[in-house]
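Methods — Computational structure assignment.
A single polypeptide chain was analysed. Its primary sequence is given first, followed by the predicted tertiary structure written as structure tokens.
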Amino acid sequence: MKKLKLLIAGLLLTMAIPAAAQGYKLPAYEKFRLPNGLMVYLMEQHEVPVISVSAIFPAGAIYDGEKAGLASLTATALKHGTKTYSKAKLEEELDFLGASVSTYASKESAGLSAKFAAKDKDMVLQIIKGIILEPVFDTAEFTKEKKRLLVTLEQQKESPRSVIGGYFDKLLFGDHVYGNLQQGKTGTVTPLTTADLKGFYSTNYRPDGSAISVAGDFSAKEMKATLTTLFSGWKKGPKTTGNQAGAPISKPAESNVLLVNKDDAKETTFIIGAPGIARNNPDYVAIDVVNTLFGGRFTSMLNDELRVNSGLTYGAGSRFNALKNGGSFIISTFTAGKTTEPAIDKALEVLNKLHSNGIDEKALTSAKNYVKGQFPPRFETASQLSGLMTQMFWYNFDESFINNFEKNVDGLNLDKAKEIISKYFPKDKLQFVLVGKAADIQKIAEKYGKLKVVEIKEEGKKGF
């Protein structure tokens, strides 16, 4: 009888999980804009005495111009000291409070994330204000950081999976700013100085175009007053016009192959891809479901064929990298040098089958259940929720994406899935990047498109 009760309890718990997922709604939040243009989001969450802060700025790699790596180094250097704290003192204070604050830059934006005990909010928010508004860009600290980055850039040349994404972006996007290298390269990073960082900061770190979100254990009324006091003095910066992120992204006129030669490579790492979608695409959820089935999970079509059935790789997948104004679709994997051709052919075969055979009801139901099951855990903590709010700001979507998520997943049927495949999953004019031993695979690479060969240890022209 005891075992029967435990079994029934387990079944009830299992049944309750989908019900909870189906009923998930974004917790209540409020937003307001300061006179200087800064958008602020507040979400009270009193379950745990913790507060998380997320901030986003129009200061990503797309603003680097000819100084690739500048956005990344500037974001890192925000924590090299402020008018109030040296770098060492800043780290000491945060460590004493058990608080964490990190800064970073991505392709389009730069950001700050922080987590700390609710009781320490006044102290940590003052520190965050200093990092955002009063960085000093210490020359000695910058010199050390630049040396570390240059070493990293050289080390990455030994790891194809560390560099192949940058090669692919440059191949796909060309001279568009989405082709900019986030970390830069040796030739662009070496001449950078703190003067470059200060110039980049003054131009791109400005309140208009930026957002701060706070989630956790606080009073929204009090937090609104605190943030207004802290950030109202942040002056608007000059308008930037040179990044051209919104410029049209040229679609490839033909299939191209970039072969990156690594003489000592025993494997071939490759990406097959094409233009993708913007993050606020109305079909985003449906695309995610179909891609989950195609290459977005371990039991996907791609992984089944390339790993399980053929043994050509330890793993293969696909994803849509969605940015504000566009993005990319990629299939990525690696294989032994001698199986380069069958692995690429198999990946293309699976893509062609997606178009020719489509998907069936059983597979679609499986993918829908998987996506719904993964969804609520992504937005459980204050850190996740604060990050979500700044993403909502940056990519221009609202709470309907969260609140209608399960409904939109459930609304995907076979006819709509067929339309999604035809519209968003490429089948021709594909772009290929292969990193491997050119002497062994160049003839193979030539069959997939117009070929260009570069050396992984060299910084060739036009960004390679």
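Note: The longest strand covers residues 327-336.
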